[in-house]
Design goal:
It is built from 16 helices and 16 strands. The protein is α/β, with parallel strands linked by helices. Helix 5 packs across helix 6 and helix 7 runs parallel beside helix 8. The protein binds 2H-imidazol-4-ylacetic acid and zinc ion.
Length: 419
C-alpha cells in the first residue's frame, strides 16, 4: 500500500477550487469554490494524492505508520495563495514620498521629478546582490507567513540591459534559496530613464534589451507600464509584439491612472493578463471578456494611492472577465506583502464576495501566471501547497482585517511556516 506523507484533516471547511485547471473561473463560477465540510487532503512526495472528507480519506487507507497528521479542526483550509503581480525585487524604500503624497502631489508627478520608480532604480543599482536579496528575502518571508506560496516577480528597477539581467538572475537565485516559488517577468519598460525620450528608450527596449533578455532565457513574461506619460499605446504595442516574437508570454499594466484604451490593446494582443484597469472603459471590459484576458486587480494600490477609486470588478465579473487579485507589492504605490489585506479590500471596495475573492487569489491567479496545471487548487496531481487559516468560516477572512489569519503554510507538503 502507498501511504501519504501528510494528511491535513478535519477542516471545518476546505475550499478546493476544483474544476478550473483548464480555464479560469468566470461569472457565477467564481462563487463555486468546491467546498468540503470536514475536509481532508493527502500529500505524497510533494503532490496531492487524495482530496475529500476526513472519513473518506481514512477509509481509502492513505494513513500509514509514517504519515504525519495535522488537524485543522474548527479551521478553514485553502490552496496556498498565488500573488500574480509584484515588483518585490528591489533595494531601499520611499517613505520620503509620503509627505508629497499627503500634499496631493500625484504619483506620476513624483516620477517626472526624478523620484518614484527612478528613485528605486538608483537605490537598487547602488545595492550589492546580497543586499537586494536580503531585503527581498525578508519580504518573501512575510508573504509566506501570510499564506502566499507562489509569487510573480518583475524586473524593472534596472532599466539597462545589465541591470535588468541582474534582476532576473537574482529572482532565479532567490527562487532556489527560500520557500516561495517565483515566476520571473521582464519589465524593462517600467519608466523612461533620464537622457532618453520615450521613443528612444522604446527603441532600446525593442532592439537591445529584449533580444538579450530572451537569449538568456531567464524571463517567462514581458510586461509594460502602458499609461499616458509613461509608455503610450504605440510604444507598448511595439514592445509586446517584439516580446511575443521572442516567445515571451505577455502581461500589461493597463488603464490604471487614465482611460486610454489599454484594455482594448491588451485584448487585441491577446495578453494573458491586463492589470490594474481602474479606468477601463465599458468597451475595454467587453474586449477583455471577448478574448478571455484575465483582469488582475490591485486594490491595495488603489487604497494606498488614496484616491477613492477602485476597479469595476462587478462589471467585469458580470461581463465574464476572469478576475484575479494581487498585492502589486512595490516600494511606491503598494508597500505591502499582505494577500489577506488584498482580500479585505477586494470585498469592501471591489464588492467581490469572499468566494469570488478566494477564487481570484488562487486558481485565477495561477492562470494569470501560467501555472494552473500545478497550483491554485486542491486537486489530485497538483503541488501540495496548502494554507490552514485560523478562522471559523470564509466570511471571517475579509471581515477581520489588519492581523494575520494564517496558522500554517505547506509548500509541496512540507510545513514552511507556522505560528
Ligand atoms: O515602484 O512605483 N506602478 N510601477 C507601476 C510601480 C507602480 C512600482 C513603483
Ligand atoms: Zn505593477
Amino acid at each position: 500500500m502507498v501511504y501519504a506523507d501528510l494528511l491535513i484533516h478535519s477542516a471545518q471547511m476546505m475550499a478546493t477550487m476544483s474544476g478550473y485547471s483548464e480555464s479560469p473561473a468566470c461569472g457565477e463560477d467564481m462563487s463555486k469554490i468546491g467546498l468540503i465540510a470536514d475536509g481532508a487532503v493527502a500529500i505524497r512526495e510533494g503532490k496531492i494524492v487524495a482530496v475529500g472528507t476526513t472519513q473518506d480519506l481514512r477509509a481509502e487507507g492513505w494513513v500509514g505508520p509514517d504519515t504525519k497528521e495535522i488537524s485543522a479542526r474548527g479551521k478553514v483550509v485553502t490552496p496556498g495563495f498565488v500573488d500574480p503581480h509584484t515588483h518585490v525585487l528591489y533595494a531601499g524604500s520611499r517613505e520620503n514620498e509620503l509627505s508629497l503624497k499627503l500634499k496631493g502631489v500625484p504619483y506620476l508627478e513624483i516620477l517626472k521629478q526624478g523620484g518614484g520608480i527612478l528613485s528605486t532604480v538608483r537605490s537598487t543599482k547602488q545595492a550589492s546582490d546580497e543586499e537586494i536579496k536580503a531585503q527581498t528575502h525578508r519580504r518573501l518571508r512575510t508573504m509566506l507567513s501570510m499564506g502566499t506560496t507562489t509569487v510573480e516577480a518583475k524586473s524593472g528597477y534596472g532599466l539597462t540591459v545589465e541591470e535588468e539581467l541582474r534582476a532576473l538572475r537574482l529572482i532565479h537565485e532567490l527562487d532556489g534559496e527560500q520557500s516561495v516559488d517565483l515566476v520571473p517577468t521582464f519589465m524593462g519598460a517600467h519608466a523612461v530613464p533620464p537622457g532618453y525620450s520615450e521613443e528612444e528608450f522604446t527603441n532600446y527596449v525593442v532592439d537591445e534589451m529584449l533580444p538579450q533578455i530572451a537569449a538568456e532565457g531567464q524571463a517567462e513574461f514581458c510586461d509594460v507600464f502602458c499609461e499616458p506619460g509613461v509608455f503610450s499605446l504605440e510604444s507598448s504595442e511595439r514592445i509586446l509584439l517584439k516580446a511575443q516574437a521572442l516567445n515571451l508570454k505577455l502581461k500589461m499594466h493597463a488603464d490604471e491612472l487614465a482611460s486610454a484604451g489599454g484594455a482594448q490593446l491588451a485584448a487585441k494582443l491577446g495578453v494573458i493578463s491586463a492589470d490594474h484597469l481602474l479606468q477601463a472603459s465599458d468597451e475595454g471590459i467587453a474586449a477583455l471578456a471577448q478574448q478571455g484576458v484575465i483582469a488582475v486587480l490591485l486594490p491595495a494600490t488603489s487604497f494606498n494611492l488614496a484616491k477613492n477609486s477602485y476597479a469595476r470588478a462587478r462589471e467585469m465579473i458580470r461581463a465574464g472577465v476572469p478576475v484575479a487579485l494581487a498585492t502589486d507589492s512595490n516600494p511606491g504605490s503598494s508597500p505591502t506583502e499582505s494577500m489577506p489585506l488584498v482580500l479585505t479590500l477586494a470585498c469592501l471596495y471591489l464588492r467581490m464576495t469572499p468566494e469570488e475573492a478566494l477564487t481570484a487569489v488562487t486558481i485565477n491567479a495561477a492562470h494569470a501566471i501560467g501555472r494552473a496545471n500545478q497550483i491554485g487548487s486542491l486537486e489530485v496531481g497538483k503541488q501540495g501547497d496548502v494554507v490552514i487559516l485560523d478562522i471559523p468560516n470564509l466570511n471571517y477572512l475579509p471581515y477581520h482585517f489588519g492581523s494575520n489569519p494564517v496558522e500554517m503554510v505547506f509548500k509541496r507538503g512540507k510545513v514552511v511556516w507556522s505560528i
